[in-house]
Q: What sequence folds into this?
């Protein structure tokens, strides 16, 4: 595994190298992170709210990255008052190919049809993730199929060429 030494290096944050015999296969990744924000009580009973929300700034998808990881860190029990270790926090991670993320960014629009400067996801547990900002029609589209755990075979296949 290769990791850039400087935060100023753009394009990739992580490279995974697989050596098989005399051949090498490398996958490059851009990682975007968000802390989670707690959901608020809805004003109307028909309004769908989630326990956790992530917010990401719109970004230019780097040509050097094979994959994009969107990582949302969250506290599984927001009411806990005792000290916790770093291991207590959990993540909700989505994996996109470069093309999938480019398509997503192109479709990331405000209700008025202009490019949205931010996008975000809502979830109660890291098994079902819903797009809550960045969709012009506000359809609350399910993005669970992009969860990292559900896409490990995609990474394996890419490493095996």
A:
């Amino acid at each position: 595994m290769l990791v850039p030494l400087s935060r100023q290096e753009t394009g990739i944050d992580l490279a995974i190298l697989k050596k098989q015999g005399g051949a090498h296969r490398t996958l490059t990744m851009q990682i975007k992170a968000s802390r989670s924000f707690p959901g608020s009580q809805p004003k109307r009973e028909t309004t769908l709210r989630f326990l956790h929300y992530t917010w990401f700034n719109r970004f230019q998808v780097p040509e050097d990255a094979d994959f994009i990881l969107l990582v949302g860190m969250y506290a599984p029990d927001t009411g806990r008052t005792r000290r916790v270790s770093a291991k207590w926090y959990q993540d909700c991670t989505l994996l996109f190919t470069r093309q999938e993320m480019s398509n997503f960014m192109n479709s990331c629009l405000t209700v008025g049809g202009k490019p949205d400067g931010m996008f975000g996801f809502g979830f109660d547990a890291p098994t079902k993730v819903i797009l809550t900002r960045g969709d012009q029609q506000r359809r609350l589209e399910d993005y669970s199929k992009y969860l990292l755990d559900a896409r490990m075979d995609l990474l394996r296949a890419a490493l095996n060429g």
The longest helix spans residues 98-107. Helices lie at 98-107, 152-160. The first strand starts at residue 14 and ends at 20.
